[in-house]
Amino acid sequence: MIHELDKLIELQRADSNLRRLKDLIDTADERRAAIEQKFEEHAFSIREVQNRHSDLKATRATLEKDIAQHKTMLERAERNLKHAQNQREYESAMRETEILQKQIGTYETETVEAMDAIETVEKELEERADEINSLDGERAAAMAEFDKELAEAKAEFAAQTAARKTTFDLLPANLAAVYDRLVQRSRDGVAVAEVVNESCSACYMRLRPQVFMNVRKGAEIVTCESCSRILFVPVGESQAA
Ligand SMILES: [Zn+2]
């Protein structure tokens, strides 16, 4: 295989790798946000149960306070009832007693309901205890792993960019220009395409036997008759090897 073709293949590999790395780096923010979002949704579902738990406990505390307060009022109403001086006072105290007893009854029913609900929520929290305890750790580990991969991609991108420049500078000016033009023209950034099953792997056009033979020889730069990309057969499959 001629030396220039070798360099072109090397350049293409470097550029494809740089393209992949650039994509990783460019999409880092949204990929990071997606991971955070996933953990946030999970944390939210846990917080929702925890909030329900504290709301229920607050409700129960309020009910207990209300019951205590109404019992005090009931004691006073019962004293009034006992010391009523006339029919009017008696009826008034009686009515107040009845209202207070009814209200206390309602509060007590609500307290039982709240306690049942608290029990259910506490059971759920107990069942999910491991999940709750490990969530923060898992989130931190996932973010650390993501940051590590991103830092590696950035470091590789910088190193590969320098290596790519060296390879590019070694190409004859005319080939470098052809390569650049092909890269800019294609959406996938591929200027040098491997021949697979006697076809161009970039545009899938089957090569004419004569063209295929020339590519296999590797003695000159051969381009695809369909997409103009520079063609090559990997070392080991070519006649030159
Ligand atoms: Zn082609």
Ions, cofactors and other ligands present here are: zinc ion
Q: What is the count of DSSP helices, taking H or I runs of 4+ residues?
A: 6
Q: Radius of gyration, Cα only, in angstroms? A: 40 Å
Number of strands: 3
Q: What can you see in these coordinates?
A:
The chain has 241 residues and is mainly alpha-helical. The protein folds into two domains: 28-154, Helix Hairpins, CATH 1.10.287; 172-241, no CATH class. The protein has six helices and three strands. It has helices at residues 3-26, 28-82, 87-127, 129-170, 173-185, 209-217, and strands at 192-196, 199-200, 230-232. Strands 2-1-3 form a three-stranded mixed sheet. Helix 1 (3-26) runs antiparallel to helix 4 (129-170). The longest helix has 55 residues, at 28-82. The mean pLDDT is 94. Zinc ion binds at residues 193, 200, 202-203, 205, 224, 226-227, 229. Zinc ion (ZN) binds next to loops.
Overview features:
single chain; about 240 residues; mainly alpha; Helix Hairpins; 2 domains; about 75% helix; about 5% strand; binds zinc ion
Compose a concise summary of this entry:
The protein has 241 residues and is mainly alpha-helical.
SSE blueprint:
Blueprint: H1 3-26, H2 28-82, H3 87-127, H4 129-170, H5 173-185, E1 192-196, E2 199-200, H6 209-217, E3 230-232
Parallel strand pairs: 1-3
Antiparallel strand pairs: 1-2
Helix pairs in contact: 1-4, 2-3, 2-4
The structure holds zinc ion.
